[in-house]
């Protein structure tokens, strides 16, 4: 009987955590609703914002993020002159990804390349931030027709020895445990630690006070997003050969490629990710500025200027005969 009571108590506790997570996720969705439209693709739904007119610019966010990382401050600075399309990567924000779907860089790149084709975005400027930079590079390598120019911000370009400290809690290798944590412990733990997490990601710059809602930061706490972010992290750790193979192909890139990095980035080191890529791709346009990891939010004018400068390098279309 004692064991039965213990089991019932455990079930009640974890059932309560699931109910709490679901209830808070619904409140978050009311506070931070979808910004754009949805594209049905391979049985999944891809959330995207399509704003402005002109040469296309495609924006791909990083680990644990969503399009709000760009729409908070950056998109409005560009959509007067460009057609800006910002995606929620598969599983992030309001985009779906089946729990057993491939989370590798190449799989995400293939999905986004299909979306770029469906939206008729010809030779866009690919803007990738953080892990989104690795996805943008995978698109440029595997689907070069989908990349006229590659403009990377604080990108992941090479394998790292260990996940950044702020993301280590996502490194859950067991699929079952990942799902369990996402639906029970992640929400209360995330709510308790969210101020610390934001400070760590934005350091040494301050986060905007409205980032949780206007920047979509709260969406990262939803169980489905936690699960997807953990899957992304594990794919990055376990598929090191995938990234190593990409690094060996950087010299084959023929489109203009640029990187903007913050000198004080606490998440990714500009020497290991920026200067290291310059060695493999001497034509790389590498710009180092004072700042941290979240430059699209903290320094949108600098980032917009970088994107405009890279967009000006877009090769002219070949003359038809």
List its traits.
8 strands; alpha/beta; 12 helices; Rossmann fold; globular; 8-stranded mixed beta sheet; 321 residues
Please, could you describe this protein's structure?
The chain has 321 residues and is of the alpha/beta class. The chain is built from 12 helices and 8 strands. Helix 3 crosses helix 4 and helix 5 runs antiparallel to helix 8. The protein is globular, with a radius of gyration of 20 Å.
Short description:
This protein is of the alpha/beta class and 321 residues long. It has twelve helices and eight strands.
- Helical amount: 40-55%
Q: Strand pairing plus helix content: what structural class?
A: alpha/beta
In CATH terms, what is the fold-level topology?
A: Rossmann fold
CATH-scheme architecture: 3-Layer(aba) Sandwich
Strand content: 5-15%
CATH superfamily: Alpha/Beta hydrolase fold, catalytic domain
Rg? 20 Å
Taken in chain order, the helices and strands follow as HEEEHEHEHEHHHHHEHEHH
Sequence stretches where pLDDT stays below 50 over 5 or more residues: none
> How far apart are the termini?
85 Å
Count of DSSP strands: 8
Q: Estimate the mean pLDDT confidence.
A: 93
CATH class: Alpha Beta
Largest sheet, spatial ordering of strands: 1-2-4-3-5-6-7-8
Q: Number of DSSP helices? A: 12
Number of domains: 1
How would you describe the oligomerization state of the chains in this entry? Answer: single chain
Shape summary: globular
Main sheet makeup = 8 strands, mixed
Write the layout of secondary structure elements.
Blueprint: H1 2-31, E1 37-41, E2 44-51, E3 56-60, H2 68-71, E4 83-87, H3 105-118, E5 125-129, H4 131-142, E6 149-153, H5 175-183, H6 186-202, H7 211-214, H8 223-238, H9 240-249, E7 257-262, H10 270-280, E8 285-289, H11 295-298, H12 300-311
Parallel strand pairs: 3-4, 3-5, 5-6, 6-7, 7-8
Antiparallel strand pairs: 1-2, 2-4
Helix pairs in contact: 3-4, 5-8
């Amino acid at each position: 009987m004692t064991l039965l009571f213990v089991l019932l108590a455990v079930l009640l506790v974890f059932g309560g955590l699931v109910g709490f997570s679901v209830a808070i996720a619904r409140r978050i969705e009311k506070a931070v609703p979808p910004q754009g439209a949805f594209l049905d693709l391979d049985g999944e739904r891809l959330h995207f914002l399509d704003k402005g007119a002109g040469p296309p610019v495609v924006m791909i966010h990083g680990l644990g993020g969503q399009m709000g990382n760009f729409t908070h401050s950056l998109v409005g600075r560009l959509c007067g002159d460009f057609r800006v399309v910002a995606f929620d990567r598969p599983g992030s924000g309001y985009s779906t990804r089946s729990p057993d779907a491939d989370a590798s860089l190449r799989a995400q790149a293939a999905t986004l390349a299909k979306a770029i084709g469906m939206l008729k975005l010809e030779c866009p400027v690919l803007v990738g931030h953080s892990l989104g930079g690795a996805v943008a590079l995978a698109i440029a390598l595997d689907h070069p027709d989908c990349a006229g120019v590659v403009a990377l911000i604080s990108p992941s370009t090479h394998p790292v020895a260990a996940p950044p400290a702020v993301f280590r809690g996502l490194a859950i290798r067991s699929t079952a445990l990942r799902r369990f944590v996402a639906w029970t412990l992640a929400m209360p733990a995330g709510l308790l630690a969210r101020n610390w997490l934001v400070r760590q990601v934005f350091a040494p710059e301050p986060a905007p006070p409205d980032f949780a809602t206007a920047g979509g930061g709260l969406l990262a706490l939803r169980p489905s997003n936690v699960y997807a972010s953990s899957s992304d992290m594990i794919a990055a750790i376990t598929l090191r050969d995938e990234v190593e193979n990409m690094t060996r192909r950087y010299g084959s890139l023929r489109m203009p490629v640029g990187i903007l990095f913050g000198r004080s980035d606490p998440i990714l080191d500009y020497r290991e990710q920026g200067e290291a890529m310059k060695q493999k791709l001497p034509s790389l346009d590498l710009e180092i500025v004072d700042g941290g990891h979240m430059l699209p939010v903290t320094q949108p004018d600098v980032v917009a200027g970088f994107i405009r400068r890279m967009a000006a390098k877009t090769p002219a279309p070949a003359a038809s005969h």
